[in-house]
Fold:
Amino acid sequence: MSVSIRTTRRVVLGSLLALAVTTAAPILSRADDTTKKEPRVGLAGYCPVCIIEGKKWMKGSSDHEVTYDGITYRFPGVEQKKMFEANPAKYVPALGGDCVVCYAMAGKRMPGSVKHGAFHGGRLFLFPSNKEKEAFLASPAKFADTDLALKGNCAVCLAMMKKEVPGKAEFTAIHGGFRYLFPSDKERKMFLSDPEKFEDKSLAGTQQASITVSGKTSCAGCEHGVTPLGAPEELGLAVSGPDGSVFVIEDAHKRWPAIYKGRFDGATVRFTGKVLQRRGKISWVQADELTSL
Structure:
């Protein structure tokens, strides 16, 4: 009898623990579940404080790390970690480590490499190759503020008061790799409490809610005169929505080759994904799912 009671208690406790875990964990949709990713390690594990303060490329440790703006940065010790936490915007690379030249010239978020870095204005800029690095060094003023949101105006002031109020560099916040400036720490803290509420929605690569659209396929290059951001050499797959909007699906030729090959047939498809960039009626989308109907 006592064995039965202990067994029953273990079952009940196990059930309560499972319920507690289930209740505490966020409920994810199918799309969220398949796209959820762990924060990536920034700067290939090198310490951002060592780079900015001492121009030294020193590897950090997983024992001392901080995740900021979705990217995990590592440090060799507690001292560097505390310096970063006190002012992360000072130490993170421009555009979250993506290439400012690629973004300025083509609207593409392309990751830079620690092998092709450059300093300007006390900040670190990374590039995918020496070609982009040389373009930056030839005219740094042209690209240095590529990651500056709203031309330096306060996002909170614009949303709350409909006024363009210039921000100050000492009150900077980073969101989605972009720099947001504020006139005081009050507005900066308001922004950080709910950045999605105030972010500049026009920025390519800004975090957006997923959209689901059903429509007819076509050739992006042939019928609409545009190509994918990440593969401009490809004609691309377009999906025309019921309201006349056109969505160019990034990487469709690799991820959904059968649908891509038959895009000229005007097949009906449905996709779920996030908008990377908009230009008039045309949007470029990073799709999580694409299915034929």
The chain has 14 helices and twelve strands.
